[in-house]
Amino acid sequence: MRSSSHVLPLGVLTALLLSQVCSGIKWLALSHAPASLHINQTQHCKLLPGMVSSQAQLCRSNLELMQTIIQAAREVKKTCQKTFADMRWNCSSIDIPGDAPKYRPDLDRGTREAAFVYALSAATISHTIARACTSGDLRLCTCGPIPAQILEPGYRWGGCADNLHYGLIMGSKFSDAPMKMKRAGSHCQQTDASTQQRSRETSKQLVFLDAKVQVLREALVMKCKCHGVSGSCSIRTCWRGLQDLREIAMDLKTKYLSATKVVHRPTGTRKQLVPKDIDIRPVRENELVYLQSSPDFCTRNDKQGSIGTQDRQCNKTSVGSDSCDLMCCGRGYNPYTEKLVERCHCKYHWCCYVTCKNDGQ
Questions:
Q1: Which 8-state DSSP code applies to residue 58?
Q2: What is the number of helices (H) and of strands (E) in the chain?
Q3: Which residue from 109, 143, 254, 259 has the least number of CB within 10 angstroms?
Q4: Helix axes 112-135, 164-175, angle to 10 degrees
Q5: Which of 127, 135, 118, 206 has the alpha carbon at shortest distance from 168?
Q6: Residue 24 in contact with residue 209, Cβ under 8 Å?
Q7: pLDDT, one tens digit for every residue, the chain (361 residues)
């Protein structure tokens, strides 16, 4: 029941509107919140990094939810870095302390990397909240509703469905809050006046929430558990559950690799985002788009946000993105052999010690 369309569409991924995308992912600095910090008093909201004033207000009125949102920020960072571990751009730029003045240029210039991070963060916060309802971590919500769909014989609705409705409402309130502020983008690197004006004009034509609702609903799949004598599975109890976040991230990575560059182009009396190459078909809602081209990430370039691939490990036998040819960008590489000694054939002796042999003996 898995479909490659289960990704956030580019109504949402207009993350690329420069100042807006940076504002929209600044909350990821919450991943640096101390693990020992338990948000149970309103003054604790002042201790959390990366939030704009409207998010701080949401924190004060939804204290119980903040631990889940902090967990979501950590999940975005971990999932992004795992998903791109085999690429030149390995999502290292997402790891920015809360007191940093701005993100690296690869995340505040309207690049495809910015689109991916925004899409993943928007999905993760709603995903994490929905799952927290299911696991009982939030008293404010319960399991999702039982579908009205009638199942075939041998199947029945039951269990605890992921509460996507609540996840979408609260996730959007928090992650989209900076975009609704009058001075959206105050945390980002400023662009020239003409670019900001184009962004403002175009952003009026973009719908964020409807597209996100539609796609995350598509990410709900039917999950079932067998019941019956001796594992016969005569009856299956089923519920609606969200795909694993790792699967959603991999789908987004596919969209990242095939992203379309767009430009602001007059359409009648307005300006819209359209593909840069006029012979390309119109961009569909479930695709990634970007405004600014990315560097090749081979060498360090602080102005473009590239940290380079020097000292990274590559796979000598691979022909993919982690191959030494691609990862090292033609600079060559230093092979090495590593000998690992493992303990095996371990035996417990009474009483009370264990003896093992080393691998190779």
A1: H
A2: 10, 10
A3: 254
A4: 130
A5: 127
A6: no
A7: 344 333 333 333 343 344 455 556 788 889 888 888 888 889 999 889 888 888 999 999 999 999 999 999 999 999 999 999 999 999 988 876 656 656 677 787 788 898 888 888 888 999 999 999 999 999 889 999 998 899 999 999 999 999 998 998 898 888 877 766 644 444 444 444 444 444 433 332 333 344 455 556 677 889 999 987 777 788 999 999 998 889 888 888 988 898 888 887 777 777 777 788 777 777 776 777 888 889 999 999 888 888 899 999 999 999 999 999 999 999 998 888 888 888 888 988 888 889 988 865 5
Structure tokens at 339: 């000998």
CA atoms within 13 A on the CB side of 116: 29
| Interatomic CA distance for residues 11 and 25, integer angstroms | 16
Type of residue at 225: K
Listing DSSP states for 99-157 in one string gives T-SS--HHHHS--HHHHHHHHHHHHHHHHHHHHHHHHT--TT--PBPPP-PPPPTTEEE
Structure tokens at 250: 């991999």
361 vs 350: CA distance, rounded Å: 24
Contact 130, 169 (CB under 8 A): no
Map residue 344 onto helix, strand or coil: strand
CA distance 247 to 83: 10
pTM exceeds 0.90, yes or no? no
Those residues whose C-beta lies under 8 Å from the C-beta of residue 232, and which sit 6 or more positions away, are: none
* Residue 316: both structure tokens together: 């000598």
Per-residue tokens: 20: 């807006």
Whose CA is closest to 96, among 178, 190, 188, 32? 32
Tokens of 328: 């090292």
Q: Dump the DSSP string for 254-284.
A: HHHHT-EEEEEEEETTEEEEEESSTTSPPPP
Tokens read off for 321: 């993105």
Distance CA 237, CA 161 (A): 11
